[in-house]
Write a structure and sequence with these properties.
three-stranded antiparallel β-sheet, 28 strands, tRNA binding
């Protein structure tokens, strides 16, 4: 019962302190729009401005017809006591109509001095302005604008924070949506695909990425068992759950996340998939966490740590990094304790910098100078690998690139770790600069030399610098200049994809195998690649089921000098068969006014000319070949047909090679002769004369 308009609203100093978790900067246009989070013990009573019905608000005022009553939500200096009919209109129009509704409750606007307001100095007098505000039903924050209050409540709902802190306001938890991927169920929060709106981010478009990583882990699990693997950024835990559910006793899975809500979500998803959870959030217990080998095979360890901390404290055979944005901040920790012949995979989603849209960010994160080129996706993969190589070399480790994929949403790099200063030096030597011609898109890696080159343009196969004015080329890098794929590893990944029924990733893996071998052959056998007598990658023998004991590599032991020398010889012979660096886009180098041949036919033409050629996953119209750009354009011109405009049908003209080449030369001679006869103003007449002879109009203009 309210007896007077001077309500006893006591705000202690602890209640005026700002909580970082509850604070949201809704608007900064006016000082009154700032949010004050009033922290209090949980649970607490709801504010009087939060009511279910207008009648409940009128009961607070204790309306009587013959007595004047004050407004329970306004101070006396703002609204004086009045009779019931006037107070009823005031409560309805000023407080109730502008309220914010949430789960059956109304958060009415409040004019009481619940929040500190900066005083306004007018002359020598100080006047305190009482600002109107709303009280949040969930976190008890005070917000001035109604639109800001609606957005504040929506953010709570998106994060799943719908349980009120008030005893008298029971709010049911938000229903979680359950998604299924690769026989694994995960429950996600609303707006799960928007990382700014939720803590547990889940992107269905990254399914291909998760399947590639699973195949790489399955290949490693066949080499040695059991292996300890880490998903450093778990989010919903979907990736680690797939590892444990399909590979079972072959892996010991640890899912980590630094966000408390994500850790809770991971535990719930583990129970949803009937997995036992071992929670570990204490850093001092990490040494004993995975010490026992007698743990349940269906047990997943869930940790709440910073990714750098857990990778510094513990050793793993397989580490996957998938932060929001760049992963360069976690590379040093990842390579510090990763075991020998282990695998590190990282997914980079900062495509704006890697794809040369934000070049200053690429320089800041990767120390690399880049420009937008026709092969920008492969350039992005080589930038990431160069950063990985430098981080591994700082830990006296070398790498062998097993897989590099750059698609629309991400850049995935999978590398094998080779301990020792010698592999580190060999890997570091493969980081070089690239000379790129901006006129014709020709490119070549700089020679390995510490001496200053007098004329770097001489290294380019093209002669654009001699025929074009000014500086025609730029230096890009530093970049990884080695191979991007390991054919044997990719074939084993394809076998694992067939074994586990991952149909979506199989076409991509087939393309990668062709690209690694630089061939157009598409005959793939699904028999086990482990039936071979021995498997060798980067000069290292890998244990396979039918491999004899003399070729086994015991985990943790060094190889003999004879094995090292033989491996080095094999590496030198294998390097000559590496796939060519970069690719050409057939549309980028097409001839104006000419119909290009079909891409598969053009690949056959290049192969018949004696060049290695294949398609590439980086670009659907890209051609990876060791042919120089000049020869590439020559063959493209040779098998292109003229395009006829006007009323004629656009049917290709089939000419023999000799006749076609002869007519091209004759066309050029005719154009030169007719240019000499006609003045400059009669170029249109020349074009008409040439067109009547069957040549495209653009030839005359040239």
């Amino acid at each position: 019962k309210v007896e007077s308009n001077n309500l006893d609203v006591k705000v202690t100093e602890s209640e005026l302190e700002t909580e970082e978790k509850g604070m949201e900067e809704e608007s900064t246009r006016e000082p009154e729009s700032n949010i004050l989070d009033v922290s209090s013990d949980y649970p607490r009573e709801k504010h009087i401005s939060i009511q279910r019905h207008l009648a409940d608000l009128e009961k607070l005022a204790d309306l009587k017809e013959d007595e004047k009553k004050p407004c329970p939500l306004c101070p006396e200096e703002k609204f004086k006591a009045c009779y019931s009919h006037k107070l009823h209109r005031h409560l309805q129009n000023l407080h109730w109509k502008v309220s914010v509704e949430f789960e059956g409750y109304r958060m009415c606007i409040c004019h009481l001095p619940c929040r500190p307001v900066k005083p306004n100095l007018v002359g020598d007098q100080t006047s305190s302005k009482m600002g109107a505000h709303y009280h949040c039903i969930i976190c008890s924050a005070t917000i001035t604008r109604r639109t800001d209050m609606i957005g504040h409540i929506n953010r709570h709902v998106n994060k799943g924070e719908t349980e009120s802190r008030f005893i008298t306001v029971p709010a049911p938890k938000s229903s979680h949506e359950v998604l299924k991927e690769s026989a694994t169920d995960v429950q996600v929060l609303p707006n799960y695909s928007t990382p700014q709106k939720t803590d547990s981010y889940f992107n269905p478009k990254m399914k291909l990425n998760r399947q590639l990583i699973f195949c790489a882990l399955a290949v490693l699990a066949e080499e040695r068992k059991p292996i300890e693997c880490l998903d450093a950024f778990g989010a919903t835990g979907i990736m680690g759950l797939q590892w444990a559910k399909h590979l079972r006793s072959a892996v010991k899975v640890t899912i980590n996340d630094c966000n408390e809500n994500s850790v809770t979500m991971i535990q719930e998803n583990c129970h949803l998939n009937k997995m036992k959870v071992k929670l570990n959030t204490k850093e001092e217990d990490n040494d004993e966490a995975m010490g026992d080998g007698e743990e349940n095979t269906d047990t997943i360890e869930v940790t709440k740590m910073d990714a750098n901390v857990i990778m510094h404290l513990r050793s793993f055979d397989f580490i996957h990094l998938d932060p929001f944005g760049t992963s360069v901040n976690y590379l040093d920790s990842a390579f510090r304790n990763v075991r020998n012949l282990g695998i590190v995979s990282l997914t980079s989603t900062d495509i704006s910098s890697l794809y040369a849209k934000a070049q200053h960010v690429a320089l800041r994160h990767y120390g690399c100078n880049i420009v937008r080129t026709e092969y920008f996706k492969e350039l992005a993969a080589r930038i990431v690998i160069a950063a990985v190589t430098r981080a591994a070399a700082r830990c006296n480790k070398g790498i062998e690139v097993l897989l590099a994929v750059a698609l629309e949403h991400f850049v995935l790099v999978v590398v094998r770790v080779l301990r020792g200063p010698s592999p580190a030096d060999d890997s570091a030597k493969k980081i070089r600069y690239l000379i790129h011609c901006q006129w014709c898109e020709e490119r070549i890696f700089q020679k390995e030399s510490n001496m200053v080159e007098e004329n770097p343009y001489q290294q380019l196969p093209c002669d654009c610098h001699g025929s074009m004015p000014g500086k025609t080329a730029v230096v890009l890098g530093p970049l990884w200049s080695g191979a991007l794929f390991n054919t044997g590893f990719l074939r084993r990944m394809l076998f694992e994809a067939v074994q586990y029924g991952l149909d979506e990733v199989q076409p991509l893996l087939k393309t990668l195998v062709c690209e690694a071998e630089c061939t157009t052959s598409k005959h793939f056998s699904t028999h086990s690649p482990y039936d071979e007598s021995k498997q060798e990658e980067c000069g290292v023998y890998i244990k396979t089921p039918n491999t004899s004991a003399e070729f086994y590599l015991v985990h943790g032991k060094r190889k003999s000098d004879e094995v090292i020398r033989s491996a080095a010889k094999r590496q030198k012979s294998e390097n000559t068969a590496e796939h060519p660096a970069f690719y050409y886009n057939i549309h980028r180098h097409s001839i104006k006014g000419m119909n290009m041949p079909k891409l598969n036919k053009f690949l056959n033409y290049l192969s018949e000319a004696g060049y290695r050629v294949s398609r590439t996953h980086f670009d659907p119209m890209g051609v990876r070949t060791n042919a120089p750009l000049a020869q590439f354009k020559t063959i493209l011109m040779k098998y292109s047909t003229p395009t006829y405009a006007g009323g004629q049908a656009e049917a290709p003209v089939h000419l023999t090679e000799d006749i076609q080449a002869g007519e091209q030369v004759q066309a050029t001679a005719d154009v030169k002769a007719e240019d000499a006869e006609f003045p400059e103003d009669d170029k249109s007449a020349v074009a008409a004369a040439v067109f009547t002879k069957g040549y495209p109009t653009h030839c005359a203009a040239d």
